[in-house]
Amino acid sequence: LGEGNHNRIYDKLGAHIVEQDGITGTHFAVWAPNAREVCVLGDFNGWTPGAFYLNCRGTSGVWDGFVPNLGHGALYKYGITSQYNDYRVQKADPCGFAAEIRPRTASKVWDLAHYPWNDAAWMARRGKANALDAPMSIYEMHLGSWRRVPADGNRWLTYRELAPLLADYLTHLGFTHVEFLPVSEHPFDGSWGYQTVGYFAPTSRFGTPDDFRFLIDTLHQAGIGVILDWVPAHFPRDGHGLAYFDGSHLYEHADPRKGAHTEWGTYIFNFGRNEVSNFLISNALFWLDKYHLDGLRVDAVASMLYLDYARKPGEWIPNQYGGRENLEAVAFLKRF
Is the four-CA dihedral 110, 113, 118, 122 of positive or negative sign? Predict the structure, then answer.
């Protein structure tokens, strides 16, 4: 993780149901290098801080521990006490696989190991279907806007309700692929998902992680590829998210001339920090691995590439050569 080349951090960090000494429970792990103490709290202990403290793994900045008799569906957060200024906060899990529906903000223990995929035929041939010389016609859509249910308070369709309707619609119109606007968990409906908080959690607005897999599975069985809009450029300031995570500017640049998006009111990832670029690379691979996605569309690349993006003279810091290019972001995108 410290070297920045742990491409499957989601196998280690976050909440994982395991058996330890003959007891089934959940193993928690979170990166918070500037914390003095980290505990897990949730509905299982009445949201009491300090009931289950985690242990720090050497100098890695990773805190982990095992909570017995805790499993699938349990709600939790991390209670973090910083080394600095006695800062205390409760955070959702940066690597959490599921989350409560907004405005609630807890993470949810979820077992991703046992979904029965039925898209083997697509997976076997998708190399050709997704090839650069293959015909492609991509339908871009926002899951919450495509159709509603007027008879039921104009609610959204669920992932499972969408699946057969969307597969038939796209097949009828001749599209080869669908691109979903960001599906990762986000607090504000009006952002259309472009202000991500839960990078490893499909939004609970439309159902569970398994329900989202069902949607992808159904589309693949219909011969339709699935592309996800992915947002590695910035993240919102919401208190339960990545911002000021352990009492320090951990994921974002401390200097607002590099770390703050002036027009969007969000924070910019510190792409030059190994663990942060590792977090994002691993997240990209996570969606391809655990959800069988066929590709990613990267949002707001221009804002990543240029240090003076949406900034007036004097509001940005030139790179080491005096230029406007964000060399750290360039290196990140090349590796991605």
Answer: positive
> pLDDT tens, 30-56?
999 999 999 999 999 999 988 899 999
N- to C-terminal Cα separation, the chain:
16
CB atoms within 10 A of CB 228: 23
Q: What are the phi and psi torsion angles at 285 (to 5°)?
A: -70, -30
Residue 321: the pLDDT is 97
Contact 79, 93 (CB under 8 A): no
CA 217, CA 122: separation in Å to the nearest integer? 9
Q: How many CA atoms lie within 13 A of 194 on its CB side?
A: 14
Report the alpha-carbon distance of residue 238 to residue 225 in Å, rounded. 33
Q: Which of 144, 124, 126, 145 is nearest to 136 (CA)?
A: 126
Query: For 134-191, what is each residue's pLDDT tens digit?
Result: 999 999 999 999 999 999 999 999 999 999 999 999 999 999 999 999 999 998 777 7
DSSP-derived letter for residue 158 is P
Give the CA dihedral 37, 42, 47, 52, nearest 10 degrees.
-40
Question: What DSSP state is assigned to residue 273?
Answer: S
Q: What count of Cα atoms within 13 Å lies in the side-chain half-sphere of residue 102? A: 19
The pLDDT of residue 293 is above 90: yes
The string of pLDDT tens digits covering residues 217-258 is 999 999 999 999 999 999 998 989 999 999 999 999 999 999
pTM attached to this predicted model: 0.94
Instruction: Say which residue the tokens 């910035």 belong to.
Output: 234
DSSP labels, 187-212: S-GGGTT-S-SEEEEE-GGG--HHHH
Residue type, 231: V
